[in-house]
Amino acid sequence: MAKAAVLMATGYEEGETLTIVDILRRAGVECNTFILKRTRG
Fold this sequence. Notes:
By secondary structure, this protein is an alpha+beta fold.
């Protein structure tokens, strides 16, 4: 089974990301989603 990592960053459009994940899953691709946030150190 194919695998994909879907990366989301601050300001992403949630609906667009979910559409991409939905299409990939329907095609049999295992998806993992990751949210990236900028932090101050």
